[in-house]
Recover the amino acids of this structure.
């Protein structure tokens, strides 16, 4: 069996100089942490963290019929998106099961940027290409749409935390640039120039905090990282790896593909059924399969679990009620911010209501947990 060497992002050398510990994630050699993962988590909650997310994909969809095509290819309706906005969504296979979750930006009337997860980028790019061929051949003959995977040429850096805006403002000398940063709304994007570098600036993130994601050409990644670190030094900007990103997204109740979202789960299982455009559009990929799935209540649904104990539930742990298995944990660990164990799990719908008491098997012993509403942590509640 041939082993595949993990790919490196354009910032790999920077991470090595910072002393990062690395891990294989989605086929990429990514920084797991630079020092203390708890320290990195705390930095994002209290100041700001900088992440290399260049392993994420970028697939550009263009052409006069790009909007109509995405309405067909994905479950939600994208033709009604306003320019400059972003939307969180999912892509399903022909049976209605999840291929990936992704963010889609509307760049222009005839242009979108789709950002899939790292390991799923080839699958998503291939699916979109195949569906473009189907769309132009069967659904809207003579339609003009092009799908281009630009992932290999593109880097992505995220700045997340309560001081993220302060740091981005520090990169701008002009009032116009500062106004762009201040006025950029959540799940929106705008062009920005930072230290002479053309940046696609998005106000999105995966941490539960305010923050920005900056998409640039590979050749500009090192210079942009250095400039952000320079201006962010006084604000406590801290390099952060995937370990803190995982604990941050878990506190925010955000699913991770491979854990909560898989080829064995549907949008309805994961609480994402509201995205499916049954009432907003007529023809779209896997509509019949999704309609059949929607006819019956999911056997198990995704919920949050918390405990007053000290032992944390881990992925794969069995969830039970009165000795009978009712679910399985998909992600879990002690919450650095909240100070008690938290977990995401798929459980039987009968025990999915907040307040339901369950037990989780942790190393052969049953520990008490309770179902709670998500997210576990919200900055708006601070």
């Amino acid at each position: 069996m041939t082993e595949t060497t993990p790919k490196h992002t354009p910032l790999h050398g920077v991470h090595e100089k910072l002393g990062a510990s690395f891990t294989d994630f989605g086929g990429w050699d990514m920084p797991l942490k630079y020092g203390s993962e708890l320290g990195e988590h705390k930095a994002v909650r209290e100041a700001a963290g900088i992440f290399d997310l260049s392993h994420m994909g970028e697939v550009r969809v263009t052409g006069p019929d790009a909007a109509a095509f995405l309405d067909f290819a994905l479950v939600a309706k994208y033709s009604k998106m306003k320019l400059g906005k972003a939307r969180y969504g999912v892509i399903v296979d022909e049976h209605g099961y999840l291929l990936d979750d992704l963010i889609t930006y509307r760049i222009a009337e005839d242009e979108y940027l789709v950002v899939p997860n790292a390991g799923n980028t080839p699958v998503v790019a291939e699916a979109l290409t195949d569906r473009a061929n189907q769309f132009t051949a069967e659904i809207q003959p003579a339609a003009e749409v092009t799908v281009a995977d630009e992932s290999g040429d593109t880097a992505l850096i995220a700045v997340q935390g309560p001081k993220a805006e302060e740091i981005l403002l520090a990169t701008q000398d002009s009032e116009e640039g500062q106004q762009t940063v201040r006025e950029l709304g959540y799940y929106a994007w705008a062009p920005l120039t930072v230290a002479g570098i053309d940046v696609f600036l998005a106000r999105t993130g995966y941490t539960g905090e305010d923050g920005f994601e900056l998409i640039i050409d590979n050749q500009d990644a090192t210079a942009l990282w250095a400039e952000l670190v320079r201006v962010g030094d006084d604000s406590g900007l801290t390099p952060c790896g995937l370990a803190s990103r995982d604990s941050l997204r878990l506190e925010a109740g955000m699913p991770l593909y491979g854990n909560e979202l898989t080829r064995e789960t549907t949008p309805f299982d994961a609480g994402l059924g509201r995205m499916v455009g049954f009432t907003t559009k007529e023809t779209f990929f896997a509509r019949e399969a999704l309609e059949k799935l929607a006819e019956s209540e999911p056997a198990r649904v995704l919920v949050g679990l918390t405990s007053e104990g000290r032992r944390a539930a881990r992925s794969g742990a069995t969830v039970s009620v009165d000795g009978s298995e009712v679910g399985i944990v998909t992600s879990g660990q002690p919450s650095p911010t909240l100070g008690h164990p938290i977990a995401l799990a798929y459980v039987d719908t009968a025990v999915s209501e907040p307040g339901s008491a369950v037990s989780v098997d942790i190393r052969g012993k049953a520990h008490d947990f309770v179902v709670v509403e998500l997210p576990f942590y919200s900055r708006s509640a601070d």
In short: The two ends are 51 Å apart (CA to CA).
